[in-house]
């Protein structure tokens, strides 16, 4: 039996625990740490998983999934260092933090796999990109893929691409939420009740996402299929281009990448 401890039971940590249970893991195989007592009690009550201190998790678990905020990593690594052995796999879900940080702070030989997930994990639709560190083997990578497949899709990328992944898919859901928010406001501006505008836009987003996922066509082709000559859509596209929306999106994602690099330092 492989014991898995999730260090930090916030939204991502809790979603992973729930996904592992749904994927067939038993509560006895799982542990978690959480610094907020109310949240810890809620997790235990809801899932039947034991909450422990970081040091105990390090001693008992075969896999440690670090799901704390990047700025909170220092005390976690300090607590882990004396307790983690080379047989323990460390999986980092912390945005921007390189495997070299863990390898430097933890005992020599500890395998580390870096992961960039995103918040659709809470509905089992995460996109997670993983990168093995110096001591991680193909077996470690396969195990991490298996664990994360319970909450969405997984791809492997070189670690040098992780900052770009963070900017694109890690932060990506926020960009879609931002766009949906703006479109709902536009519906209200045009005289629709908020509830109607929200229903129209959310379902349109769901449908468009399914078309993208299931189609072999490039997004440009799918967009052109909606864009009739001299029609409503092309007039809207002209305004988007006039206001530099495409360029703004490129700049925004580049800025997110730059911030990910800063976090890693």
Describe what this molecule looks like in 3D.
The protein is α/β, with parallel strands linked by helices. It folds into two domains: 4-159, NAD(P)-binding Rossmann-like Domain (Rossmann fold), CATH 3.40.50.720; 172-264, Orthogonal Bundle (ProC C-terminal domain-like fold). It is 54% helix and 13% strand. It contains twelve helices and eight strands. Strands 3-2-1-4-5-6-7-8 form an eight-stranded mixed beta sheet, with helices on both faces. Helix 8 (172-189) packs across helix 9 (194-214). The longest helix has 21 residues, at 194-214. The chain is elongated. The mean pLDDT is 95. Residues 159-263 form the Pyrroline-5-carboxylate reductase dimerisation domain. It is found in: Cytoplasm. InterPro entries: 6-PGluconate_DH-like_C_sf, NAD(P)-bd_dom_sf, P5C_Rdtase_cat_N, P5CR-like_CS, P5CR_dimer, Pyrroline-COOH_reductase. Its EC number is 1.5.1.2. GO terms for molecular function: pyrroline-5-carboxylate reductase activity.
Entry summary:
The chain is 54% helix and 13% strand. It has helices at 11-22, 37-47, 54-60, 73-80, 99-105, 138-148, 162-170, 172-189, 194-214, 219-226, 232-242, 245-264, and strands at 4-7, 30-33, 50-51, 63-66, 89-92, 112-116, 126-132, 152-156. α7 (162-170) crosses α12 and α8 packs across α9.
Helix content: 40-55%
CATH H-tier superfamily of the largest domain: NAD(P)-binding Rossmann-like Domain
Q: Write down how many β-strands occur, each being a DSSP E stretch of 2 or more residues.
A: 8
Q: What's the number of helices?
A: 12
In sequence order, what are the helices and strands, one letter per element? EHEHEHEHEHEEHEHHHHHH
Estimated structural class: alpha/beta
Give start-end ranges of low-pLDDT stretches: none
Shape descriptor reads: elongated
CATH class of the largest domain: Alpha Beta
- Cα radius of gyration in angstroms: 21 Å
Number of domains: 2
Strand content: 5-15%
Main sheet record: 8 strands, mixed
* Annotated CATH topology of the largest domain: Rossmann fold
